[in-house]
User: What shape does this take?
Amino acid sequence: MERNAQRDLHDALWQASGGYDLVLGPVLLSLGGLWLDRRLDTTPIFMIALLVFGAIGAGAKVYYDWKLRMTRATEERDRLLEEAAELRRQAAR
Assistant: This one.
């Protein structure tokens, strides 16, 4: 597989993982909470608490991943703008 195609596939899979992050964490934690509730006879305290905890954690992870991607995109844009300005300066000479 060509190097650029590998990178594109990796990027696509990385971006797609956000959906799994939003669903899998809260579901698994709520199932763990349901198990705890049944063991301790406290239904539905732990299930709801862990579901909320998982949803907040998943949301925070997706937000910080998005923020990191935006920072990288901004840095790349600034680098390209600087490169374009340098090429214009060279062409003007």
